[in-house]
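Would you kindly consider the sequence and fold I have copied below?
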Amino acid sequence: MSCRQNTFVHMEIHQKPNGRPQYLPVHAASLVDPALHSPALLQLVDIKLSRPVIEYVVDYVSDTVNCALGRTTLPLHLRGRTRSPYHAKFITFVSTVLACAEVVPPTVLTALVYVARARPHLSIALEEWALERIFLGALIAASKYTNDSTLKNVHWVLCTGVFGKRDVDRIEHEFLGVFD
């Protein structure tokens, strides 16, 4: 018997857009009856990482950092389309990291949950690179939680193009330290 046994014991049926059924394996340890999966949740997990999704991630991380710095911001739906040049650079950073690391939507959603949970406990002493550090810390933690096989920190270094290995190690450590 191999170390990696097949733990998928039954199949879940989903309807494809073309009307034909799609059979997906369901993990044996799943405690949720396949019939009880929320269609809305399944639809959310299946989203594409489009420009509006990336902009939402950027806005949410920006709000979180502003909150940690004691700044007030307008709610997302009341903001105008004018953004600072730094905002555009952060969108590029997020887009580049997500594409380079081939991050899937469930990992991005998990990262957003981590940012939300960290928000009341964040204390940012140095504003420089704060957006990138919070985003990357949450994304690395989410990737390691949601994937059996994930990137090593040296690979995250390559995906960011701006941080070294020590920086990425520190970013991950500091982000996870918020939850202690």
Summary: The domain at 48-177 is CATH 1.10.472.10 (Cyclin A; domain 1). The CA atoms of residues 107 and 143 lie 6 Å apart.
